[in-house]
Amino acid sequence: MVEEEGIMPDYISFIGVLFACSHTSLVDQGREYFVSMSKKYSIEAGIEHYTCMVDLLGRAGKLEEAENLLRISNLRDDSSLWASLLGACATSSDLVVAERVAKKMMDMEPDYHLSYVLLGNVYSAIGRWDDALNIRTLMKDRGIKKTPGKNWIDA
User: How far is CA 105 from CA 21, 79, 84, in A?
Assistant: First the structure.
């Protein structure tokens, strides 16, 4: 940070810093900046900061740490954060955390298709084809449909 020049970081600055830490595998530094936001600068972390931290920790394979971070946050009921974590689980094929996070998402929003799709992706990634099929069957039984993708160029 450039405090020496009298420039103080703000809410947006920390999004950029945490994003950069995530994409350069600077886990320890990202943690330090995240903590310093509130402790040193009195900036309350928002959804963007938590999303960056989930991404940072997920890329580093620290899924349980990311899960714990969300559980203690004031945004613990935001399904988009849990979807980010479940997406990280799908990338790393961590079934234990994926099942736990998917269950939480399904409890929060039973009709949200992404929790089913991402859990099915984790099952597929580790070769548990029957479980992946069971998730698809569960979606069908509950009348849950995937939201089709959108091409923003033609929108």
Answer: 27, 6, 11
pTM of the prediction? 0.84
Place of tokens 């931290």: 53
Q: Is residue 153 part of a domain?
A: no
Q: Residue 76 corresponds to which amino acid?
A: R
SS3 155: coil
CATH of the domain at 106: 1.25.40.10
Number of other residues whose CB lies within 10 A of the CB of residue 68: 12
Domain count, the chain: 1
Grade residue 57 by pLDDT with cuts at 50, 70 and 90.
very high
Is 14 domain-assigned? yes
In a domain, 80, yes or no: yes
Q: Which amino acid is at 37?
A: M
Q: Among 106, 101, 94, which Cα is nearest to 144's?
A: 106
Question: Which has the closest alpha carbon to 33: 46, 47, 21, 48?
Answer: 21
pLDDT tens-digit map of 13-46: 999 999 999 999 999 999 999 999 999 999 999 9
